[in-house]
Amino acid sequence: MKALHVLLSVPILLAGCGAIQQMATPAQAPAGVDSEAAAVRPVARPRADAPQSAESFDTTTAAERAAAAAPAPQGALRLGTTVASLGDPTEAGFWLKTPLVDAPAPGRVVATGTGQSARVELRPLAAEPGSGSQISLAAMRLIGAPLTGLPEIEVFRLPGG
Questions:
Q1: 59, 94 in Cβ contact below 8 A?
Q2: Of the four, 35, 92, 108, 130, which is 20 to 30 A from 154 by CA?
Q3: Would you say the C-alpha torsion 138, 140, 143, 148 has a positive or negative sign?
Q4: Digit-coded pLDDT (tens) for 9-51
Q5: How far is Cα of residue 97 from the mean position of the Cα atoms in its chain?
């Protein structure tokens, strides 16, 4: 019985070796065609509807940006300093999600690196204090922070909030 298995296995193994050798040999380009030009290479194509820049994601108007850049009113309460990362770029507006507040409130953020500031809506973030915050794309651009950076920002609650 063992001899029968060996006799039947040999032709199958030999056929498999030929297939492996054929796969290992590179295909030859047709005569007169450069082998580099004949090679198929995948090309990534951007979607026609995909935004290509921060400007295309930032849907705030010039008037909204001017209002957010307006000077802060007197009586703002300093809540602390946090490190912020870019939040969801598809969420429009000027906002900061932070563990420094437990309810939505009007606020202001100041980038310690640039000194630029923006009025924002302070939104609670379910995280431990000191774990960092998330800032909107529009606010990140207004305070002059690099979009891929982790800017340190001072957070203030404005009166009436």
A1: no
A2: 92
A3: negative
A4: 666 655 665 555 555 555 555 565 555 555 666 766 666 666 5
A5: 17
Give dist(CA 56, CA 147) in Å, integer: 14
Name the residue with tokens 């953020």. 109
Q: Given the DSSP bridges, would you call strands 105-111 and 133-135 parallel, antiparallel or unpaired?
A: unpaired
The 8-class DSSP code of residue 14 comes to: H
Find, among 104, 112, 115, the residue nearest to 83 by Cα: 112
Indicate the pTM of the whole model. 0.63
In the structure encoding, which two tokens stand for residue 16, read together? Answer: 């498999």
